[in-house]
Design goal:
It is an enzyme of class 3 (hydrolase). The chain has 504 residues and is of the alpha+beta class. It is built from 13 helices and 24 strands. Helix 2 packs parallel to helix 6. The longest helix is centred in the first third of the chain and has 19 residues.
Amino acid sequence: MTHRFARLSALAASAVTALVVLAGQPAVADQEAPLPTAFDRAAAARDVPRDLLVAVAYAETHLDAHEGKPSASGGYGVMHLVSNPTTHALEKAAELTGLPVEKLRGDTEANIMGGAAVLRAYADDLGLDEAARKDTGRWYQAVAKYGNASTPEVARLYADAVYEQLGLGIDTGGVVVKPQEVTADRGQYAKARDLNAAVGVGILSADYPPANWVPASSSNYTASSRPSAYAIDRVVIHVTEGSYAGSISWFQNPSAQVSAHYVVKSSNGEITQMVRDKDIAWHAGNWTYNTRSIGIEHEGYVNNSSWFTDAMYRASAALTRAICDKYGIPKDRSHIIGHNEVPGATHTDPGSYWNWTTYMNYVTGGGTPSWSATIDNSSAGFSASSNWGTSSYSSQRYGADYRFANPVAASDPAWFQAAIPSAGTYKVEVWYPADPGYNSSAPYIVATSSGNQTVYVDQRSGGGAWHSLGTFSLNAGTYNAVGVSRWTSGTGYVIADAVRISRV
């Protein structure tokens, strides 16, 4: 797609500031600093929490600059500085830093400095003073604005993804963020619809009930009455070249002139439908194929395999299987194709890192995990002290009830015991009901082969569904594999409901 760049203006005072900040450091133009150093410098120069800056970059690009090439919505570099007809974050970064647009697009150190400047400007707009800026949770609304979302619900989706990453931790490209307790102050976004919520909580897709429904702009698709108007006989697989929330927001933007029927999230396989099956999404770049197909976008970039998770493959395959069953489409590679296989295609997605063998195996019903175990709080493998109460208050619970306890300065964990069949890599998922009164940073402990690892989860949102903590190396044997600790500075009841462990 074509991207137009808005007016570039540079403020002289900002240029002087940028020169002072970079004085005494290796010249950005001559030699890029390593990623960790670049984040450290930008965070210090703009008084932005360093780990939050990394989390924003990770949510946007997994810290991949993509050789200076733009995303689908016109975003550049690891900080995804956007320049399109309606969003001018790239130009704003140039004004704030005094650095040329060309450098912000193609130089990673400059790009990170620009992203930090934009984020800080949004914090200033919120009135965050020096003391408030030290509290990472207070930056939530600034992060939501950084995502350039079209609606409050998508802005919340974006910001929640960033803060979730702080709880999970990050270790990529030499940049490390340790899992940490953060209570996100959502402010006005606390009232926005939680698109991470379980089925039955949000507005659901009429065509595929496991998906949320967030409509694309009517300027980005053609209303129709398929399959009576046109037969549906293809599924086209795409990669967004952008983030999940960013892609949803882009399809809501009337200037995008592009859309897809469904978007799938990388980390947990969450699905949002944006165009009804009966209507014609503009996704294939070929009108005949648009009329005859369903388009599925997958969060990520074609040149970075880290986006293509097992959770994404399984969720997307289940969707494709349902589409094929509904419209009588054969489940084969002649009818389930990549965007690059559309006649006349100029796109390369899903690219060489997309594992068609795995995907088609899941579509046709294979690929069931070789071992999986679910431990509920009522299972024999669950144990907790008398300090943990029992409740059935929330309808988002797994099973008949769940456990709750007040946070204290002592671990007193509730444990989920599992019989791990052999040493290896396992995916750990947790289920909890969500409520504004539940814990903002609940510590989940995973007993890995190299020692306990803690992941922090905001139990105020995203409840009533399986929530991935990640993949971990586990030893064989029967032991307490996953725990929920009460030792947290987060506010609200700590919840222990259910755990699922699957070999990968």
